[in-house]
Design goal:
Low-confidence stretches: 1-6, 106-123, 219-234
Mean pLDDT: 81
Helix content: 40-55%
Shape: elongated
Largest sheet: 2 strands, antiparallel
Structural class: mainly alpha
């Protein structure tokens, strides 16, 4: 195996796009566009499932160290983790796909470095808000007298709540707590502090990219939302 000086990494969505591009090259003509888009969707779902089932090595985008999560935490992690090209190709080989993806281009590397610099400057992914930002966004949708101030206190005291703490990460030279908006939303539904309809309205307005976490929760809201996990196939 040949190692490059700088190992390349893909987010899962980028990895799915890269796989589809190998299967259906752009120079194949317009007739390949539809199948390529279908392949992107299929491989994104397959990679998310692989993360949830621990079938692929996935990593923290900052440190690049392997990480491990269980249940809903793994599903949420699949939205922001990265996989190395080597691990991605090993997964493809294990699945018998018969293709290998190339390393990320140098332009992409520069974009990643630029994104890291921007993140250090305080600009991060919109679905990873600060405690105050998330409390302001979800507070108006809470029930039973709960509000943004209550949520802010709960977030600031997250070390006492393991089910909440797994959705927090701290970054920057002076660590600032940032939260996975979708994960905290599911946590609040499980506590019955937020209804499914309220969660949907809040995510549609503030964090539309996280709406996927509600899939399947609507029918289970009155039963046991805390037991929801990503759909798997036996």
């Amino acid at each position: 195996m040949i190692f490059e000086e700088h190992m390349n990494f893909y987010k899962l969505k980028e990895a799915a796009t890269a796989i589809a591009a190998v299967l259906y090259p752009a120079n194949s003509g317009e007739e390949s566009e539809g199948p390529r888009q279908d392949a992107e969707r299929s491989y994104l779902a397959a990679l998310q499932h692989a993360v949830c089932e621990d079938e692929i090595v996935y990593r923290d985008p900052g440190s690049k160290l392997p990480i491990h999560q269980d249940g809903i935490a793994a599903f949420m992690t699949s939205h922001w983790c990265v996989v190395s090209v080597a691990d991605l190709n090993a997964w493809l080989q294990a699945k018998g796909i018969g293709v290998q993806v190339p390393s990320v281009s140098s332009d992409s590397d520069h974009m990643d470095e630029s994104a890291d610099t921007t993140q250090e400057a305080g600009v991060v992914e919109p679905d990873w808000p600060t405690s105050a930002q998330l409390a302001d966004a979800l507070g108006p949708y809470l029930v039973d007298g709960r509000d943004g101030e209550w949520l802010k206190r709960r977030l600031n005291d997250a070390d006492r709540y393991a089910d909440l703490l797994k959705y927090r990460r701290k970054e920057g030279r002076r660590p600032v707590a940032r939260w996975n908006a979708g994960g905290v939303t599911v946590y609040l539904i499980a506590l019955k502090e937020l209804t499914w309809k309220g969660a949907k309205a809040a995510l549609e307005k503030h964090y539309p990219d996280s709406l996927g976490v509600l899939d399947g929760l609507g029918q289970r809201e009155e039963k046991a939302p805390a037991q929801w996990f990503p759909t798997t196939h036996d």
